[in-house]
Design brief:
single chain, 144 residues, 4 helices, elongated
């Protein structure tokens, strides 16, 4: 009888559910399309000339905006990787991202009274957060 050797738990990863794969791909696509685009080709907005970003609800411009885009790209890349590899940190990043985006949006909506943008961005981010949560929440216990 041959002795079977079991792998340590950290080496054995559960199979990745299709919805988590879709979430990881959507996060990677978002990072590539929106964040990288803002880094390499910052477009002009009516309220700013050059790079602009939002940090916890407040607009930042110039180099600070570019640094924030780089940080967003790092977080999005980490989120996509950890979702893809089914690591627990991926689930924690999902929860952190949802909380951060909600708080940031609420602060931004209170500080800047731009009704068209507030509604548009609010719907956009609500859809993103809802999709991310719907795709990952049922599998939250599978992240190791």
């Amino acid at each position: 009888m041959a002795a079977t050797r079991t792998q340590p738990r950290y080496l054995s990863r559960p199979t990745r559910p299709l919805t988590v794969t879709i979430a990881a791909c959507l996060v990677a696509a978002y990072a590539g399309l929106f964040i990288v685009w803002d880094i390499i080709a910052p477009f002009e907005r009516p309220y700013a000339e050059g790079p602009v970003s939002v940090i916890l609800g407040f607009r930042v411009f110039g180099l600070s905006a570019q640094l924030m885009h780089a940080l967003q790209l790092l977080v999005a890349g980490s989120l996509a990787y950890h979702l893809w590899t089914m690591r627990r940190f991926g689930w924690h990043l999902v929860m952190f991202s949802i909380g951060y985006m909600l708080v940031s949006y609420v602060i931004w909506a209170q500080v800047y009274n731009e009704s068209e943008r507030i509604v548009g961005f609010g719907l956009f981010y609500a859809v993103i957060l809802l999709i991310l949560l719907v795709l990952t929440f049922p599998h939250r216990r599978k992240f190791v």
